[in-house]
Structures are given as C-alpha cells and as structure tokens.
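Long-time lurker, finally posting.

We've been working with 7263_t:CDS:1 (Acaulospora colombiana) and I want a structural starting point before designing mutants. I don't trust myself to interpret raw outputs, so I'm hoping someone here can both generate the structure tokens and explain anything notable. Sequence follows.
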Amino acid sequence: MFGITSINLPRSQSLEITFTHKKQKKNNNSTAQSYGAPLQLDRYLTNEGHRIVASYLRQKQTQGYVQKGYFHKINEKDLDDLIKSCEGVATRTFETLNYEDLHLSHRECKLLARFLKSENVVVRTLMLRKNHLAGTPLKVLLKALRKNSTVRILDLSSNLLTDVEAKWVAKLLKKNSTIKELYLASNRIGSDGAKHLAKALEENTTVERLSLESNRLSEKGGGYIADMLKINNTIKYIHLGSNNLQLAGIKEISEALKVNSSLVSLSLDVNNIAPEGTNFVSEALKVNKTLTHLYLPRNNIGDQGLKNLSKALLSNTTIAYLDLEFNNIGINGDTEGMEVMGKLLENHIVPRALNLTNNHLGDEGCSALFSGFHKNKTLESLILSHCNIGLDGTRAIGKALRDNVGLQNLSLHMNSDVGADGHLELAQALEKNTSIKGIQLDYNFAEWESVGNSIHQSLTRNHFLQREKYSVACRIEVAARIMLNSNVKQQLPTYSRNSKTIKKSGRPGKPPTSTSPQKLTFTKLPFEIQEQILFSIDENHVLTHLQLIEIIKWSMKRSTLGKSMKEFLTKTFSAYYPLTSDVKLWPTEATDFGGTSTERF
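Top reply, 14 upvotes:
Generated this for you. Predicted structure of 7263_t:CDS:1:
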C-alpha cells in the first residue's frame, strides 16, 4: 500500500473516492463485488484528529447559521458547543447580527436568547426589524438582554409592538446600562407605552438615540416624553415623527426644549403642527442653546409658520439644519414667508443647511429668498427641489451666486421650467462663484452637454481652490506660530574669529592680539515685515486680506494652542466646509436621496 503517514485529517469522502479510484486502476482483475469499495483510511487518520476536525467543522457551520439567523437549522447542543469553544480564548465578536424580516419563531428566539446571555461572545448591533416579535418571543429576548453587557444598538422597528411590549422594553432600560441606540419605529405603541418608556428613560443614563417614529403616542404620549426630556440629559437624538402629537403635544415638547441641555436632533414631521404650533417651537428656539437639527416636514405650517420660525432664529445661533419639506409654503403665490427667510439669510449665521423641497416658491418666492443672499457666508446647503422655479427665479439665484462665498451645495432638481436659458444663467454665474462644489440639475434640454461641461469645470475648480485655501492657511499658521511666539528668541549662532583674523593694536610697538569669541544678535523684525513674510506664503493670493489677518491673530493667542485644525479653519474662515466628494453635506429627507427617514440619525 501507499506509504502515507498519519496527518490527522478527517475521514473525507473525496479522499476515499480518490484512493478507491487509484486502487481500481492498479487492480484490473478486481471482481464486480469489490469494484468501488472505499479504501479504509483509519490507518492514516487518528480518531482524535477526526473528532477535532469534525467538531471544528460543526462549530464553523453553527457560527454561519447564527450569523445569518438560521436558528431553525441548529439545536441547543450545537449552540452550546459553539459557546463553549470560546472559553479560555479571545472573545468572539459579532459586530452586527442582522435578522431583519426572518419571522423568528419562539424556539428560535429562545436559542438567540441563550446566545446573547453567554459571556463568551460579543454582539454590538442586533437588528430585529420586521419579525412580528410581539408577545412571548420578545419577552424571552428582552430578559436575555437584561443580562447582556455588549449590545450597543437594538432595533425593534416594525414588530407590531403594543403598550404591553413597551412596558417590557421599559423594564429592560431600567436594568441594561450598555444600549446606546434604541429603535422602536413603526409599531403600535400608544400613550401608556410612552409613559412606561418615559419613566424608564428618566432613570436610564446610557441611551443616546431614540426612535419612536410612526407610533400612536398622541398628545398625551407626547406629554410623557416631554416630561422625560426635562429630566434626561443623555438623549441626543429623538425621532417623534408621525405620532399625531397635535398642538398640545407640540406645546409640551417645546416647553421641554427650554430646559433640556442634551438634545441635538429633534424630528417632529407629520404631527399636524400647523402655523399655531410653530409659535411654541419658535419660543423654544429663542431659549434652547444645544439643538442643531430640527425636522418639521409635512406639518402644513404655511407662510405664517415660516415667518414665526425665521424671526425666532434671529435669536438663535445653534440651529444648523432646518427641514421644512412639504409645508405648503408659498401657496397661492404668497411670498411673505420667503421674504422673512431671505432677511434671515442676509443678516444671520443660521441655519447652515435648509431644505425647502416640495413647497410652492415659484419665481417670486425664489427672488425674495435670494434678494440679499449674496451677503450670506454661512449657509452650506440649500435644497429647492420641486419648487416650481422657472427662468426668473433662476436669474435671481444666478445673480446672488456671483458674489456669494459660502454656499457649497445647491439642489434645483425637478424644476422643469428652468429650461435651457436657466441652466445657461447658472453656468455663467458659476464661472464667477468660487465656493459651490455640488449642484443638482435636470439638464432636460437638447443642448445640455456644453452647459453641463461648463458647470462641471466650475465645480471642479472650486473644489481644488478650497483645498488650496485650507492648505495655505495651515502653512501660514505654522509659520506664524514660530515667528510671532515671544518665547522663541530670534538670534544668530555664536561664532569665533579664526586664527588669521586679528584685532589691530591701538599702541605703537604693541603686538596684535587675537579677538575673543563674539555673539551677534539681531533686533526682532518689526511686525509689519513679519506680516509681509507670512503673506508671501500665499503665492497665488487665494486668501483675502481679512482671512490672513484672522490667521495671524489666531496664531498669536496662547489660548488657541492645542486646538484642532477644524476649529482653526472654522474660526479664521467664518465656517469650515469639509473637503469631501459627497456634496450632500447634511442629511436630507427621504425623497431627496431615496433612503429612509431613520437615516437622518
């Protein structure tokens, strides 16, 4: 037979067939009865090796089933063997277990619970959307999560959860201290469920993101959440859209904003706020100093609501993103709202991104919005898709863009009346504009190619120009730190005259004497000369004189030492625009990028 040593391989069907085939070739006189009989490999494989490899293969298979959520293909022993295999070795980590739309049974949930309770495995994200987990299966999982200390993100959206299940989730929040993100969107949680959750979150100090979108909280449930926000100082992002909060609920939430100091993102879309509700929100914005993202789509606030919000924002310096999509602004040719918003953008530093998609701006409203926009330096992104803008409105935009230095992204998608002349107007404006890096247009005309190429060239130029500005600013900052720091003594190196250099004697008949070592220093250069040296670093003159002065002032302050590059550029350029290929600098509504509203988190 073959001289094969034991290599501790498992008994393999492919090997058996191979050996059998070779044996048959060498023995043509084999009888029909022995033809195809497998060669026994026990002499080459130890029993211990066989068991080890077979066990390893089963564990790998079980691990794959767990990763995919195929718990119906494994039993308790398989799962226990997998868990046991992790003992005494590095903890096995499952970053994300995505079990969306698997319709997990009670038995499968018990196995998953067994897995989650193990101390030998780590699960960071648990996605359980669309599993119809209401009832006992969910209860089993929530009990397991009370003992789990690794899951950071828990998604229970679209599971038909009611107030009963919300009470169980509340009990989990009182016990668990590791979950940071909790998604309960698209369930059937009412005011009683909101009460239980709110009470638990008054004690919980770890949850930072909470989504209750598309439930049944109503104004009463909104009141419970508002009471919680007055106490909780951990939650930063909360989504309360599509909950029919009504005026009473909006009023309570607004009152909570006046005292809450942690919330940075609030979503209140589809809650029938109406113009009256914006009065409450506006009063809160005058007081709140932490909220940066406010979402109010589909609330029928109209022009009066926009006026209320715009006037309130004159007293606010923190709101960065304002979403007012689908709000009947500008209906029946009304331009009052756009006029007030235009004044805000002309004279104030907020917002930094504005979404007015699917409102009835028209040419007149657009002209009112851009009347003083050439003075604005801080608005980064403006979304005007589906706003009935035509040629006259586009001309107003083009006129403002020729002098505007802050806008980075402009969306005019689905404004069919812009036409070829409107696109040409924008192309000509962008030849002079030096800031915009992204623009969304339809190009729905025959001669779009040449206009499109012109716009593309302008956007590319602006991108590289902005990169050069930031690079030059950083080089000047480094040089200024050295030149203007009073602790750095500017001096020439110490030197001695060589032996051939002698000092003449002042007396006749006295031999000349050698000089002693001398140290020569020069007087510190006047600030004006140092300033010109620093200015010369900007060879292509991409920075304004004011920006250069701001950079030098920053460098001279001891308090700015250790600050980040982002802080430096934000201060010296009034605003920092990230150098990114993604022109959508801020999250927008689902209709703008084809995602879901939960992506705004």
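Before you design anything, note these points.
The first strand starts at residue 92 and ends at 98.
The mean pLDDT is 85.
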